[in-house]
Amino acid sequence: MTDPSTDPSPAGHVDAPPLDDYRARARAWVEANLERAPQTRPARGGDMTPQAVTEARALQRRLYDAGYVGITVARAYGGQGLGPEYERAFHEEARGYRLPDFGIAGGTTFGVVVPTMLAHAAPAFLRRHIPKILAGEELFVEFFSEPDAGSDLAGVRSQAVRDGERWVLSGSKIWSSGAYYADWGMCLARTNWDVPKHRGLTWFAVPIAAKGVTVQRIRQITGDAEFCQEFFDDVELTDDDIIGGVGDGWTVTQTMLIYERGGGFGHGGPARQAPKGIAPDLVELARSVGRLDDPTARDLIARAHVDDVARRALLARLGGRMRAEPGQAMHLASYAKLASGVFDPPRANLAMRIGGSDAVAWDDGDEAGARTANGFLNSRFMSIAGGTNEVQRNGIGERVLGLPREPSFDSGKPFREVLRDARSWTGRPAGG
């Protein structure tokens, strides 16, 4: 197989068919092989059953065998090696049909992990994992956050210690969405304690079924339990499991954060299509509770629509900036993440005001009421997960606007010394 790193085009494009012909073939295949999606969305989608995962894997395999998964991924790694316009064409034709749904672990696998791996992992690693991911055989989650690190993404204490030809992983990760049904975790571990914290990190692929890995689910306010905590007790790994280089974990992290915070829209990801009509989810809600002609409800829908338009305009502008300034992409992605953290809570509140008592207590089968309540309970998710609003504002201020950095007592010290000094640190300057 051809190594795409030697191909003159980034995705290894070869023998690309005319786009209109590709679209016509995709339309015919979709109509013949996929079911129409239900008109109403499910109220909740956090917990995945084994049956749902099995069904999603089977559907993913059908799409993969037909050539409609990994459309922009190089052929050497199981993809089609086509440009993003072909991927957009397929998703436009498949709109309204049932596609594989792996829940939140699916979003992490295909939206964050795969593009990060393609950017940093060795060709042998990619040949081993990417085809299986595309075929639905491997789902990846992030083993990133830690119980003791908070918003300090580089304050990692889970460690991988070299022991001859192997690495031994120990420690704990938390808030790993969907880990209970995933196959692998992309894990950030400390491999050097004697350098500043950002320089002693390495990413590993960790099989969740490996000896020494324990996954515990965490019950959330919505009643779902998609969050997990993992414990690693002397888990054996090899050099073949490394993503990027030893000690190069923060470089890989910067790429991952682009996709996690910005959704990858600045890097040729699938086009974000505006919904048809004015805030269609809220219009549907108002209709279901008999308030579609209520002036107050209509005003709330209009307010949400204005915010939706502003948010899409922001993301479109960010996409252009990120493509034009790839060196700033990680920092610009913070705007997209902050937008979610800022826009989501008030929009969920508007929905609750429209739904009224029907969004507080509802009859069995009332999807609109259940969905509205669930959205409200989850509305502050993006203001915390993946870096709080405050962390995003700090990053934007320092990295984009050029404002003075906040004082730091640990940026140039070996991490081992940081932990030692933190035991007696008061926050006051010496002599104070």
Map the helices and strands.
Blueprint: H1 19-33, H2 50-66, H3 84-94, H4 103-120, H5 123-134, E1 140-143, E2 159-163, E3 166-174, E4 184-190, E5 201-207, E6 213-218, E7 227-237, E8 242-243, H6 249-262, H7 280-288, H8 295-324, H9 329-355, H10 367-377, H11 389-400, H12 415-422
Parallel strand pairs: 1-4
Antiparallel strand pairs: 2-3, 3-7, 4-5, 5-8, 6-7
Helix pairs in contact: 1-3, 4-5, 4-6, 6-9, 8-9, 9-10, 9-11
Which structural class should the secondary elements be placed in?
alpha+beta
Q: Given this structure, which CATH class of the largest domain is correct?
A: Mainly Beta
Strand order, sheet with most strands? 1-4-5-8
Mean pLDDT: 89
SSE pattern: HHHHHEEEEEEEEHHHHHHH
What Rg, in angstroms, do the CA atoms define?
A: 23 Å
Beta strand % = 5-15%
CATH domain topology of the largest domain: Butyryl-CoA Dehydrogenase, subunit A, domain 2
Cα(first) to Cα(last) distance is: 65 Å
> What is the approximate shape?
globular
Number of strands: 8
Q: Determine the fraction of residues in helical runs and give it as a percent range.
A: 40-55%
The CATH homologous superfamily of the largest domain is termed: Butyryl-CoA Dehydrogenase, subunit A, domain 2
What does this structure look like?
- The chain has 432 residues and is an alpha+beta fold.
- The protein has three domains: 125 residues, Acyl-CoA dehydrogenase/oxidase, N-terminal domain (Butyryl-Coa Dehydrogenase, subunit A, domain 1, Orthogonal Bundle); 158 residues, Butyryl-CoA Dehydrogenase, subunit A, domain 2, CATH 2.40.110.10; 126 residues, Butyryl-CoA Dehydrogenase, subunit A, domain 3 (Up-down Bundle).
- The chain is built from twelve helices and eight strands.
- It has a four-stranded mixed β-sheet, covered by helices on one side. Strands 2-3-7-6 form a four-stranded antiparallel β-sheet, with no helix packed on it.
- β6 and β7 form a beta hairpin.
- α1 runs parallel beside α3, α8 runs antiparallel to α9 and α9 packs across α10.
- The longest helix is centred in the C-terminal third of the chain and has 30 residues.
- It is globular.
- It starts with 18 loop residues before the first helix and ends in a 10-residue tail after the last helix.
- The N terminus is likely disordered.
